Amino acid sequence: MVMTRWQMAQVNMSVRIDAELKDAFMAAAKSMDRNGSQLIRDFMRQTVERQHNSWFRDQVAAGRQQLECGDVLPHDMVESSAAAWRDEMSRKIADK
């Protein structure tokens, strides 16, 4: 069975919250035709996605800044390094 990014093995998670907050949350979930677990999973996915997107934007900004400062590698050096990596991976696969 192939699992997608969010279809990994499931685990339980316990959270201690105020009873009134739980009741209000469950009522809100019901009004949206959802259950609490669905909303919490959605919130967790959105939080992880926002964090990843923020990290990715920071990486792109850092790369652009390096480019503007001239802190780059020549194409032939990158190509040579990539070729060496491909050769190494091919050898590892062949050795299996």
From TrEMBL:
Keywords: Plasmid
Gene Ontology molecular-function annotations: sequence-specific DNA binding
GO biological process: regulation of DNA-templated transcription
Protein name: Orf, hypothetical
Gene: yacA
